[in-house]
């Protein structure tokens, strides 16, 4: 069993890429830190770092282990928070993964009421696409995920929120399309498009909508950086409504004439253990549905 202390030492050295700076941050001597890293390498049977005169760099095995070590530390911190909340008023941390959607405003409103009643409850949001959120759910790093139009899998439980998000087209503000108020699905076939990664990989259920016939010139997983590609005329981004503030930018959002919508779900692992704080948020969301 690897000690949490050794994992923390390793992660600090990996970040600083310098044994002396890492030792100073950890408040131990440089020889003592070097000895601890050597012990970790001995336990694992691999070399984690390659050392030069000026730096301490990760090996290929070290790069892989860094990701695993961070997951173990995150999970350890999450477990510690769950079991140190006390027996009185509900407190603790909730870990929620989500993509970009206006529906987070609804989740935020529900959580605001919880925090007014229980100030010791804190919400930690991880933003990423559906694949990244599911991966962290599987590893126990998240309590729940807010996913849009997911394909269903037997290892998860799904709570339908009764809310939908809708797709449209983000275009440069100075292109001829910007004069239109909406755009048809047939028109989409004629334009160079930037597609959401989930749509491009068929990992999102969009009903009858088929993206395969579209002219994709790229993809994105979060819309913010894709907006700069749109402004440069690289392509038009098929994206969800109400995500991009176009004011003061060379951008315009056009709704689709056809209603391409996706439902929102709260996704959790089957048979998962929930802290009191996480269980409270899930119950409040269920109450909203009722």
Question: What would a concise description of this structure say?
Answer:
This protein is an alpha/beta fold.
Account of the 3D structure:
The protein has 290 residues and is of the alpha/beta class. The protein has helices at 4-16, 19-26, 30-44, 60-82, 104-117, 130-138, 185-188, 197-200, 223-231, 276-289, and strands at residues 49-51, 56-58, 92-98, 121-127, 144-148, 156-172, 192-196, 215-220, 236-240, 251-255, 261-269. Strands 3, 4, 5, 6, 7, 8, 9, 10 and 11 form a 9-stranded mixed beta sheet that branches. Helix 1 (4-16) packs across helix 4, helix 2 packs across helix 3 and helix 5 (104-117) crosses helix 10 (276-289). The two termini are 46 Å apart. The model has no long low-confidence stretch (mean pLDDT 87).
**Mean pLDDT, nearest integer?**
87
The global form is globular
Q: Summarize the biggest pleated sheet.
A: 9 strands, mixed
The number of distinct β-strands equals 11
Instruction: Using the CA coordinates, give the radius of gyration.
Output: 23 Å
Strand content: 15-25%
Give the N-to-C terminal Cα separation: 46 Å
Provide the low-confidence segments as ranges.
none
The class by helix and strand makeup works out as: alpha/beta
Helix content range of the residues, please?
Answer: 25-40%
Number of helices: 10
State the order of secondary-structure elements, H for helix, E for strand: HHHEEHEHEHEEHEHEHEEEH
């Amino acid at each position: 069993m690897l000690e949490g202390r050794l994992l923390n030492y390793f992660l600090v050295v990996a970040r600083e890429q310098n044994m002396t700076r890492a030792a100073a941050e950890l408040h131990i001597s440089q020889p003592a830190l070097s000895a601890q890293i050597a012990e970790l390498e001995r336990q694992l049977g691999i070399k984690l770092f390659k050392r030069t005169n000026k730096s301490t760099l990760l090996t290929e095995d070290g790069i892989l282990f860094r990701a695993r070590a961070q997951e173990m530390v995150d999970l350890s911190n999450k477990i510690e928070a769950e079991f140190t909340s006390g027996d009185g008023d509900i407190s603790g941390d909730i870990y929620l993964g989500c993509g970009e959607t206006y529906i987070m405003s609804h989740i935020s409103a529900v959580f605001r009421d919880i925090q007014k009643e229980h100030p010791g409850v804190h919400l930690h949001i991880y933003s990423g696409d559906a694949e990244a959120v599911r991966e962290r759910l599987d590893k126990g790093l998240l309590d729940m995920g807010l996913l849009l139009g997911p394909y269903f899998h037997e290892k998860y439980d799904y709570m339908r929120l009764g809310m939908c998000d809708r797709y449209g087209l983000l275009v440069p503000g100075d292109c001829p399309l910007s004069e239109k108020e909406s755009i048809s699905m047939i028109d989409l076939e004629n334009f160079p498009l930037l597609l959401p990664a989930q749509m491009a990989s068929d990992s999102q259920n969009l009903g009858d909508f088929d993206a395969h016939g579209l002219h994709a010139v790229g993809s994105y997983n979060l819309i913010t950086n894709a907006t700069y590609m749109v402004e440069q005329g690289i392509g038009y981004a098929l994206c969800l409504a109400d995500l991009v503030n176009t004011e003061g930018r060379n951008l315009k959002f056009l709704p689709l004439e056809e209603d391409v919508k996706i439902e929102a779900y709260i996704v959790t692992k089957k048979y998962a253990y929930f802290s009191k704080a996480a269980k409270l948020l899930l119950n409040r969301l269920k109450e909203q549905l009722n």
